[in-house]
Design goal:
The complex is a heterodimer of chains A (116) and B (111).
Chain A lengths: L4 E3 L2 E4 L5 E6 L6 E8 L3 E9 L2 E4 L8 E7 L2 E6 L8 E8 L10 E2 L3 E5 L1
Parallel strand pairs in A: 2-11
Antiparallel strand pairs in A: 1-3, 3-8, 4-5, 4-9, 5-6, 7-8, 9-10, 9-11
Chain B lengths: L3 E4 L2 E5 L4 E7 L6 E7 L6 E6 L3 E5 L2 E6 L4 E6 L8 E8 L7 E2 L3 E6 L1
Parallel strand pairs in B: 2-11
Antiparallel strand pairs in B: 1-3, 3-8, 4-5, 4-9, 6-7, 7-8, 9-10, 9-11
Classes of the chains: A mainly beta (116), B mainly beta (111).
């Protein structure tokens, strides 16, 4: 079991550029979550898919951020016109989504995004 | 204001000692609590979960939950240097839902 895979591990973009982050959930997991972690704000929920359908995007900034899950094996988080305040570690997590085993969320290694 | 408050912010514990961490949710809809541990430079890993009033023990780790006060605590006995990490409390109204995390308690265990 390779765990949750995230690519790239590090990304540096210039202000105003676009950044696309990729996540491959654990095989068999139907729920995929995106979080953002900074020193000041801590770990914040962004959005959540179950069986590829968007369920809750209450944590997503309404402008510039979007997430998709085109198939069960990967999800993407896209940030348009990146700003320095978008600099953070973006974490993807997956869970069974069925309530079994208290539905533990398993986190990937994260993508460290730096916007200059 | 954070909906999940953790205290203390940091804790220094001697090897072999006891560490006690606290977490309270201000969201009355919360029904599920998790404790995650995050070593420096790594991603969070689930340590323990508790969904019912009372106590749950796994090895050196014990969690308590009081649903009436929405307060949970994590106790680490016989602390080891490998326990040095950021401990994050998370809460949710339901399973398989986005978690709300506190800012964490940074535990340092010195030999």
């Amino acid at each position: 079991n390779a765990g949750v895979i995230q690519t790239p591990r590090h990304k540096v973009t210039g202000k105003g550029q676009e950044a696309t982050l990729w996540c491959e959930p654990i095989s068999g997991h139907s729920a995929v979550f995106w979080y953002r972690q900074t020193i000041v704000q801590g770990l914040e929920f962004l959005t959540y898919f179950r069986n590829q359908a968007p369920i809750d995007d209450s944590g997503m900034p309404k402008e510039r951020f979007s997430a998709q899950m085109p198939n069960q094996s990967h999800s993407t988080l896209k940030i348009q016109s990146t700003q320095p305040q978008d600099s953070a570690v973006y974490l993807c997590a997956s869970s069974l989504g069925t309530g079994v085993n208290q539905d533990t969320q398993y986190f990937g290694p994260g993508t460290r995004l730096l916007v200059l | 204001q954070q909906k999940v408050q953790q205290s203390p912010e940091s804790l220094i514990v001697p090897e072999g000692g006891m560490a006690s961490l606290n977490c309270t949710s201000s969201d009355r809809n919360v029904d599920y609590f998790w404790w995650y541990r995050q070593h420096s430079g790594k991603s969070p890993k689930m340590l323990m979960s508790i969904f019912s009033n009372g106590e749950k023990e796994e090895g050196r780790f014990t969690v308590h939950l009081n649903k009436a006060s929405l307060h949970t605590s994590l106790h680490i006995r016989d602390s080891q240097p490998s326990d040095s990490a950021l401990y994050l409390c998370a809460a949710s109204p339901n399973y398989a839902q986005g978690l709300t995390f506190g800012l964490g308690t940074r535990v340092s265990v010195f030999p």
